[in-house]
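Fresh eyes needed here. Kindly weigh in on this sequence plus C-alpha cells:
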Amino acid sequence: MSYVGTRTALGSNATYTSPAMMSNRDDTVVGAVLADQAGTLNIEQGYPDDATGLVSTWTAIATVAVVASTPTPFSQALVAPKWRLRYVNGASAQGTFRVDAKTTAAGDS
C-alpha cells in the first residue's frame, strides 16, 4: 500500500503533481479531494523507461471534475507500473485544498 497527498493550497490556474508512485501488487487507487475552488483531478499512469526508470509519457486514465467546497471521492483501477495524481486548479486561488490517495490490492481491507 502506498499513500500520497497534500494540503498546500494552489494559486490561480496552478497545478499540483504528486510524486510518481509504484503500483507494485496494488490494483486500485482510492482517495478524496476537497478544494474551495473548482478544478480537475487527473489520475495518470505510465510505463517507466527501461534505461532510466522514469516515465516520459503519462496517460490520464480518469478525469474527475471537482466542484468547489464539495468533498469528491475517487476510485480507479491501476494497470501500469507507475501512477500519479495531477490536479489543475481553476481561475481563482484556493484557500483550502486537500487531496489524499492510497493504493489497495484485491483482498486488502
